[in-house]
Amino acid sequence: MASFPFFQVDAFTSKPLHGNPCAVVLDADSLTSDQMQSVAREQNLSETAFILHSDRADVRARYFTPAEEIPLAGHPTIASIHTLIEANRIALTGERTTISLELKAGIVSVDVVSAEGRSHEIVMTQLKPEFLSTVPRNKAASVFGLSTEDLVTGKPVQVVSTGTPQLMVPVREIDCLGRIQVDVDALTQLRREFLFFSVHLFAQIDSGTFARHFASPPDLFEDPFTGSATGGMGAYLWHHGLIDVPDFLAFQGTWMQRPGQARVRVLGPRDNISAVQVGGEAVTVIVGTLHVS
């Protein structure tokens, strides 16, 4: 039986039991993909991160939901870098330390910004966004118990990927998010038809956005805070002219009693976005040892 250092970290928050929990397993090079998947099912969180050696970057990570491996995700990235700092595996150099992270989707850059008297802010630079298929507005609305009048007028329901394809559904107001009733079978069928991983529904407020995020079982049905989709949302808002400044705060997890927030910055002009940065804090809630046979 092999043993591995194990952490559970709440990402996109500085308060324990807020934000999005992620399991992080260090020194995971000897684990097979099947073992990693079994560990992710055991944790039953949105994602479990496995930290490995990289010949191409400073560190490598693999991310698994309870159902499958995914190429890129936000809150496991924040949680993984936070864990490496806590475990003294990364040495911080001054006010900003840049780390290269190898993921299945490619190599991404992560900056750790140190500030006296508060937690480190960890900023992930996601990949250049791809604007993919559009979904009929009435079909998307009905999956979530909404009407087309609840959606933002004149803007598409569209799959956007900054590493993981996710469906972006802009709604007119926060009240629409509170009225969501998901038809799980219809959501599963929509995923198969339009080839996306999960769905991000969001409403704009003066200071930024509020969002809810859904996937099909056996993955966690609703995600407390979704960093990758927050990046895709930022790209969508800037590309489609829904924000005047490409820098805002994103809030998620309110309806799950796990509020979290991130700073979002979109890089590049509306018609040629180069990348999206999503930054937040994290806090460790569990430290232990994982045993795998």
Could you explain how this protein is built, in words?
With 293 residues, this protein is an alpha+beta fold. It has helices at residues 33-43, 75-86, 137-143, 174-178, 184-194, 227-239; strands spanning 2-11, 20-25, 48-52, 59-64, 69-70, 96-103, 106-113, 121-126, 130-135, 157-161, 165-170, 198-205, 208-214, 222-223, 247-252, 260-267, 275-280, 282-292. The chain has an 18-stranded mixed sheet that branches. Strand 10 and strand 11 (165-170) form a beta hairpin. 48% of the residues are buried.
Task: Spell out the blueprint of helices and strands.
Layout: E1 2-11, E2 20-25, H1 33-43, E3 48-52, E4 59-64, E5 69-70, H2 75-86, E6 96-103, E7 106-113, E8 121-126, E9 130-135, H3 137-143, E10 157-161, E11 165-170, H4 174-178, H5 184-194, E12 198-205, E13 208-214, E14 222-223, H6 227-239, E15 247-252, E16 260-267, E17 275-280, E18 282-292
Parallel strand pairs: 2-3, 4-6, 11-12, 13-15
Antiparallel strand pairs: 1-2, 1-18, 3-4, 4-5, 6-7, 7-8, 8-17, 9-10, 10-11, 12-13, 13-14, 15-16, 16-17
